[in-house]
Amino acid sequence: MTESKIKVDHLTKVFFKKHSSVAAIKDISLDIKEGEFVCLLGPSGCGKTTLLRILAGLEKPSTGEYTIAPGKENKPLQSMIFQEQGVIPWMTVENNVSFGLRMRHAPKDELKERTEYYLDKVGLTEFRHLYPSEISGGMKQRVSIARAFANDPEILLMDEPFAALDEQNKFILQEELLSIWEETHKTVVFITHSIDEALLLSDRIFLMSAQPGTITREKKIDLPRPRNIEMVRSNPKMGEEFVDIWQHLQEAVLEKRH
Amino acid sequence: MEKSISTYKMTQSESVEQQLWKKSVRRNRAFKALTIASPILLLIIWEILSRTAMIDPRFFPPPSLIILEFFHLGATGQLFHHVGISLYRIVGGFFLGVIPAIIIGLLMGMYLPVRYTLQPLVMALMPIPTLALMPIIIIVFGINDISKMVTIAGSVFFPVLINTVAGVTNIDRIYLDIAKNYGAKSKDYFFKIALPGALPMMMEGIQMGQAIALLTIVAAEMIGANSGIGYLIWTKYKTFVLKDMYVGLVLISFFGYFFSLLLRGLQRKLIPWQKS
Questions:
Q1: Tally of structural domains, chain B
Q2: Using CA atoms, how far apart are residues B4 and A75, in angstroms rounded to an integer?
Q3: Please, which residues bridge with residue A114 across strands?
Q4: Which end of chain A is more exposed for a tag (fewer CB within 10 A), N or C?
Q5: Cβ distance A156 to A187 under 8 Å?
């Protein structure tokens, strides 16, 4: 459990245009251990999505490098859970969940088994033949979660998956995510701008500042697992952590304004 | 909780809502009746005006006579000959235009080099009416069904192509990201993302192409043909048998309507994820 799973080494990404260039992230180094649940927390525009897209292979870094330690089997390195619109509208719930497995031509029985297992896990078995336009936003995010877990990657990347949900749905899905995650303890990098969410989910939180995005602080959250939202809300230490993080982020946001 | 109202004594608010609901059902029925009534009304007015000679019955024969003429022509068998040959040309030409348009459209949408190479050619060729090329087409293919099909194909090709390209380029980027992140190969992009993603707009293009195919066949058969609905309309006009000419026009209208319904049905089958 102590070997490092993701190593990010002085990663910088600059977006270059004709008359300007913007450094989205600058000189970011991270060492994330096997089985760790890590949150990147920062205001919008701090480059956290850029960092995640690089890890997801959707963007190339300008300088620096990263490695994701491969597993023993023939598993994909990473799978991403996207923001709200991340389910494919022309595939049924079931075909969305099995998408990754189908793309990597997983054996038929494995495909069926894993798809059914995670459909059941997120409670969508009876909706498996529906299209995304026929289900609610919360259910769509469940499809996204099931798709990523069914693909059985080495690490999971999550890009503010619950940002568009209403508060009640968000709490429910956060706890569902945790309970599915407890089964496998895969390494997770989770992006959020919600302090509560970061406190509930993470083993470690990296706080980010904006423009250029850098990691300014690191926090260990040693609340015992399994966790739920009541535990975070009623724990006085978590209350202090909340205030501490808030003050830090507030500084970062105000600094940007000046 | 939903309750079945048949086994249940309604509260006052429920019966108020029931009245409103009944009212809206009646309204919808009235609208449907209007849709059916309006063409019938038009035919009745036409009939009366023509019978009373308020409009010249030589140019506008009463609909009842046109219907009679339809059965008369049908009985002699020559109508089926013309209709059959026209349908053959339409269907052949339609597929001859639609299939390459979809393939080239998908390629243009997906691959930038293809798009940048073909875009100027498409833009330059599109404004030329295929009918104006008919003399050349006839020289190349001869006065036969093939030349009609090529003419139709040329007209159908562009709206389908343009809509297919737009369909692919308008696919939300996030679906491309998902496909990439989950390891899709280029074959998967083509069949799992580009094709279904472009399908709704593609079908609109095909719908448009269908209407253009009908316009084109009539005109094409007027220019260089000795059979078909267009030929029928043209010769009956020249010999001043206007009743027969109207039969041809009504047939075209009927087929346009019929093909539209057929394509709408196909659309619902092919695009089950789209909310209607």
A1: 2
A2: 52
A3: none
A4: C
A5: yes
Which of B174, B182, B193 has the highest number of chain A CBs within 10 A, making it the mutation to test binding with A?
B182
Residues of A with CB under 8 A from a CB of B: 56-58, 76, 78-80, 82-83, 85-86, 88-91, 99-100, 103-104, 131-133, 147, 151
Both B45 and B94 in one domain: the answer is no
Q: Are B213 and B93 in contact (CB under 8 A)?
A: yes
The verdict on B227 and B244 lying in the same domain is yes
Which residue, chain included where needed, has tokens 């470690």?
A: A204
SS3 B211: helix
pTM: 0.84
Instruction: Report the distance separating Cα A252 and Cα A211, nearest Å.
Output: 10
Burial of A177 (0-12, 13-18, 19+ CB in 10 A): buried
CB-nearest partner of A131 from B180, B197, B272: B272
- Report the domain count for chain A: 1
Q: What is the pLDDT of residues B200-235, one digit of tens each?
A: 999 999 999 999 999 999 999 988 788 999 999 999
Same domain assignment for residues B29 and B141: no
Residue type, A206: F
Condensed to tens digits (0 to 9), the pLDDT of residues B159-192 reads: 999 999 999 999 999 999 999 999 999 899 999 9
Residue ranges making up the domain that contains B67:
63-270
